[in-house]
């Protein structure tokens, strides 16, 4: 691997000096180094990229992720000293200002202890796990199922590996998530890794435990934290599109369009548009959210339709209309003048040529009839 990494620390700050090529293959090593600084309380990190000869889209994406994570922890991260093709790559992808690539490195040389980080062919995340975990698991699987020492040894392995599992949980933690919940999920993933590890395959425990624990954490976010469950095909398409977008941006020199993404992923453009439309829909909006474009304090809840109270009266109105049609024409007219024309009994009496007393008796007779028939039905 053509990458050399040295680390220096001072109080709550850390300096990571990179030499060589930082690409998609070596970016996970950088993430491990920076997360190690975060775990140790160094939340203000400077990445010295002045000695890099190559920086690809996958590495830039890793830098942006680390930048966001540092801000969530109350610190910051920036890439200083970018020149040549490295600076061009940051400018083309539009992240040069975000990562403060134009800033000069201001870390004094005298305060650089430059501890070299060993990067070999073994995935760096394995270094989080106790070196004796694999050997202990080999001993565990050699014990008979009814051996009384089996449960004790299993508990010992879990206790030794819990700090490493908790470090993964803290990396997934943000201000909107419960750390205690994530620690429990990580512990559950660790137990699954210990019970599911096959010692006969000749691999290190970290090779199996790392994806098991992180997978359990990702499943927790997907299944429990999302208020709206998106179809799995949209979730997978979104991940693939995010990876392809970085590569296409650097290749095409502009942000890829939906047809370009569809052609690159060999899917229909309609699927890409559906995926884009689903972005940001994993959490429901609050009904107290103010409505944009309104001058008053209208909320989203105010725009949601409610049940019409007149809806329950539809059946009664239809029945009443049929019953009124059965009354004599004179009584229908009196009811119409009284309740629709808002006339007094004296005015009705003058119009229909009857006495007020007679109009009163006809109204009472009509209303009693309608009330009795409606009650019966």
Automatic annotation (TrEMBL):
CDD domains: Sigma70_r4, STAS_anti-anti-sigma_factors. InterPro entries: RNA_pol_sigma-70_dom, RNA_pol_sigma-B/F/G, RNA_pol_sigma70, RNA_pol_sigma70_r2, RNA_pol_sigma70_r3, RNA_pol_sigma70_r4, RNA_pol_sigma_r2, RNA_pol_sigma_r3/r4-like. The keyword Transcription applies. GO terms for molecular function: DNA binding; sigma factor activity. Transmembrane segments: none annotated. Residues 3-112 form the STAS domain. This is SigB/SigF/SigG family RNA polymerase sigma factor. It comes from Dactylosporangium aurantiacum.
């Amino acid at each position: 691997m053509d990458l050399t990494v040295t680390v220096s620390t001072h109080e709550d700050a850390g300096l990571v000096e990179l030499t060589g090529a930082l690409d998609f293959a070596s970016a996970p090593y950088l993430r491990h180094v920076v997360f190690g600084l975060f775990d140790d309380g160094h939340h203000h990190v400077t990445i010295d990229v002045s000695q890099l000869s190559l920086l690809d889209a996958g590495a830039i994406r890793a830098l942006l992720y680390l930048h966001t994570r540092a801000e969530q922890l109350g610190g910051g991260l920036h890439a200083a000293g970018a020149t040549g093709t490295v600076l061009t790559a940051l400018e083309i992808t539009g992240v040069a200002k975000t990562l403060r690539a134009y800033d000069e490195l201001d870390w004094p040389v005298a305060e650089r202890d430059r501890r070299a980080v060993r990067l070999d062919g073994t995935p760096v995340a394995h270094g989080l796990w106790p070196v004796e975990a694999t050997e202990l698991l080999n001993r565990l699987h050699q014990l008979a199922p009814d051996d009384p020492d089996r449960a004790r040894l299993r508990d010992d392995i879990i206790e030794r590996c819990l700090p490493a599992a908790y470090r993964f949980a803290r990396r997934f933690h943000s201000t909107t998530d419960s750390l205690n919940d994530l620690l429990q999920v990580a512990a559950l993933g660790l137990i699954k890794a210990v019970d599911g590890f096959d010692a006969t395959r000749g691999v290190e425990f970290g090779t199996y435990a790392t994806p098991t624990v992180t997978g359990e954490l990702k499943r927790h976010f997907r299944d429990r934290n999302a208020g709206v469950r998106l179809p799995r095909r949209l979730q997978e398409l979104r991940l693939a599109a995010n990876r392809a977008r970085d590569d296409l941006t650097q290749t095409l020199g502009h942000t890829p369009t939906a047809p370009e993404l569809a052609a690159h992923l060999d899917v229909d453009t309609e699927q890409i548009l559906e995926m884009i439309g689903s972005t940001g829909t994993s959490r429901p909006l609050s009904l107290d959210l103010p409505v944009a474009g309104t001058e008053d304090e209208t909320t989203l809840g105010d725009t949601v339709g409610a049940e019409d109270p007149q809806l329950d009266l539809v059946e009664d109105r239809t029945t009443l209309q049929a019953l009124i049609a059965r009354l004599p024409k004179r009584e229908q007219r009196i009811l119409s003048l009284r309740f629709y024309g808002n006339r007094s009994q004296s005015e009705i009496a003058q119009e229909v040529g009857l006495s007020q007393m007679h109009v009163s008796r006809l109204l009472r007779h009509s209303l009693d009839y309608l009330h009795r028939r409606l009650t019966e039905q």
